[in-house]
């Protein structure tokens, strides 16, 4: 139903990436868990190229792209930008950069991101590196990050961490639906 997964299914097409066959490692963890910091170390020691989904999205906003406002709003709210948009940026970066080993940091953020990436690019990650960190520590780090990011404030941070269940039933269910919808859309397709 109009998702990137459906589009790829219909066309039965894989992107040019399936020719390049790069090695990909997904680097995951909550906001502030240190993904970007450790990716910089891995780049230095192991020759990977670091692709941060968040950095690519922020660059897209700066470039004045037609999706810029939508991306800006979603980042400010701590919600996940549609897979189609993020995957295009990742594909472009992988094709343009002359390396065959990539750390993909902050992607996938959900199951729909993951399935769409695999279907569209044909790439299965070598492995997933997950940085496990307490919310208390992540919050402390984000509030001290000092990179001028619109989402490094307590309101957005709390939205990014979890569903706030201290609100009225209807509002909590809005947040619950946002988690289920991408997966259920795919199952119904
Ligand atoms: N192990 C650590 N201990 C303390 N501070 C850290 C650690 N790792 C990262 N930081 C700091 O925490 C903040 C968030 O790190 P960052 O790499 O941007 O995380 P992420 O990309 O997962 O959000 C940065 O200011 C960074 O310097
Ligand atoms: N796969 C992704 C990654 C980031 N994003 C957006 O970008 C924001 C910042 O992501 P990031 O990876 O730079 O954040 P950190 O984990 O580094 O703090 C997220 O909160 C989302 O709004 C997204 O929509 N989809
Ligand atoms: Mg980061």
TrEMBL record:
The keyword Nucleotide-binding applies. It catalyses: UMP + ATP = UDP + ADP. The keyword Kinase applies. InterPro entries: Adenylat/UMP-CMP_kin, Adenylat_kinase_CS, P-loop_NTPase, UMP_CMP_kinase. Keywords: ATP-binding, Cytoplasm, Kinase, Nucleotide-binding, Nucleus, Pyrimidine biosynthesis, Transferase. GO terms for molecular function: AMP kinase activity; ATP binding. GO terms for biological process: 'de novo' pyrimidine nucleobase biosynthetic process; pyrimidine nucleotide biosynthetic process. Its EC number is 2.7.4.3. PANTHER family: NUCLEOTIDE KINASE. Belongs to the adenylate kinase family. NCBIfam families: UMP_CMP_kin_fam. This is adenylate kinase. It comes from Artemisia annua.
């Amino acid at each position: 139903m109009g998702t990137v997964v459906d589009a790829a299914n219909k066309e039965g097409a894989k992107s040019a990436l399936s020719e390049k066959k790069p090695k990909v490692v997904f680097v995951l963890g909550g906001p502030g868990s240190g993904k970007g910091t450790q990716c910089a170390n891995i780049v230095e020691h192991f020759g990977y190229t670091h692709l941060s989904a968040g950095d690519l999205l922020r660059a897209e906003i700066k470039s004045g792209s037609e999706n810029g406002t939508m991306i800006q709003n979603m980042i400010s709210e701590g919600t996940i930008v549609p897979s189609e948009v993020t995957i295009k940026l990742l594909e472009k970066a992988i094709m343009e950069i002359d390396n065959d080993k990539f750390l993909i940091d902050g992607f996938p953020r959900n199951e729909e991101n993951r399935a769409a990436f695999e279907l569209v690019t044909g790439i299965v990650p070598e492995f997933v590196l997950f940085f496990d960190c307490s919310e208390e520590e992540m919050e402390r780090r984000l509030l001290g990050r000092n990179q001028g990011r619109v989402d490094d404030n307590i309101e957005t941070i709390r939205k990014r961490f979890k569903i706030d269940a201290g609100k009225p039933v209807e509002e909590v269910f809005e947040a619950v639906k946002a988690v289920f919808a991408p997966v259920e859309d795919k199952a119904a397709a």
